[in-house]
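DM from R.C. (forwarded with permission)

"hey, sorry to bug you on a friday — could you get me a structure for this? deadline for the figure draft is monday and I only need the backbone to look sensible"
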Amino acid sequence: MVAAQAVAGALCTALIWGITQRSGTAWSALYGAAAAVLPNALLARGMTRRSSSNPGAAALGFMFWEMVKIAVAVAMLAAAPRVVADLSWPALLVAMIVCVKVSWLALLWQRRPAGETKQRV
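My reply, with the result:
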C-alpha cells in the first residue's frame, strides 16, 4: 500500500512538473506526497514491529500508531512553508490527496484468493 502511494506521488509530481515547468511547484507536490507516504510508512512499521495475541493490546497499539501518523502529517504540513522554497499549496494538497486516495485503488487491484472466482449467468 505504501509503495503504491509512493509511486502515485512520484507520478503526480512528474505530471505537475510537466505541466508547470516550475521547480517550486514540483517540490511542493513531492513534499505533499511525502507528507502522506512517510506517516503511513511509519504506521505500517509500527504495526508490524510486534504482534500481540491480546486483541485489546492490538487495538491500543493501532490507535497509538494512528495518532503518531496524524501528528507527523500535521507537523510536516506545518513545517512546509519553512522547508519548501516557493511553496505551492495547491500542488502540495493535490499530491497529498492523490497519495491518500490511491490506497482505495490499490485495494481494488489486489487479486482475489485462488479459490474465489466470478460466476457468470
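R.C.: lifesaver. The chain is about 80% helix and 0% strand.
me: no worries. The radius of gyration is 18 Å.
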